[in-house]
Amino acid sequence: MMPLTDQQLDTLTLAEGAATLNHAIDSSVDVHQIKASLDRLADEAEHQLGAEPDMALRLDGLCRLFYHQWQFKGDIEQYFSSDNVFINKVLERKTGIPASLGAVFLYLCERLSLPVKPMAFPSQLVLRIDELEDAPVFINPFNGERVNERILRGWLKGSQGPLAELEASHLQPSDNPTIIGRWLTVAKSALLREEKYAMALRCSELALTFSPDDPYEIRDRGYIFQQLDCDRVAATDYEYFIEQCPDDPAAELLKMQVKALNEEQPTLH
């Protein structure tokens, strides 16, 4: 598994970081082929829009090109499919989720010198532009439409509950490691749902390179090990979680799980 560090991710575009992540999860993913596909799109965008001096018109033109002419779109039918988190699949299908579509869109923005930044909003990735109008402009990469703070406030309440309040910190641009960390969580969830446990395990192991002692990630890794019939290591991960988070409601259930797993171990004579 290739190394994936904050320092490495900060030297890449978000799309390149995502491709590196995808390769770390599935070694058959060709990072160079993804880069070539991104560059072909960027060359076409530059050819059509590069001479436009007005930033607002350039951005509007890119939205039309990306979402209408090229027909990139959000996956309404299978939002949680792992195809939506693998950049190569997103480029092939022209379909994805806010994070993956936003990463491709940002790659094009950089080539067109558009000052668009990713924002890890609690509910999804949002794109922020600061130099277009007096106030920040926000774009939903799922469909290319602009959203205002009222809509963002509604998304926040839907994500965190009716008492959640929109704060300035929610609207700040995010660095690549933050976004890739969330991407990794989404990828793991999708792969677990599809019972692709070997790749889900690689997601968990990657997450633990960033936070080696995270008890919740270790608990999740234990679940994956259990699905892979690695009962002894699963029990060890569960025991670590129980020790670190004794008051968590899941701890009592996991104690019973550990007991059952240990009882299933064969007796050696």
UniProtKB/TrEMBL annotation:
<dbReference type="InterPro" id="IPR011990">
    <property type="entry name" value="TPR-like_helical_dom_sf"/>
</dbReference>
<feature type="domain" description="Protein SirB1 N-terminal">
    <location>
        <begin position="33"/>
        <end position="184"/>
    </location>
</feature>
<comment type="similarity">
    <text>Belongs to the UPF0162 family.</text>
</comment>
<dbReference type="Pfam" id="PF13371">
    <property type="entry name" value="TPR_9"/>
</dbReference>
<dbReference type="InterPro" id="IPR032698">
    <property type="entry name" value="SirB1_N"/>
</dbReference>
<protein>
    <recommendedName>
        <fullName>Protein SirB1 N-terminal domain-containing protein</fullName>
    </recommendedName>
</protein>
<dbReference type="Pfam" id="PF13369">
    <property type="entry name" value="Transglut_core2"/>
</dbReference>
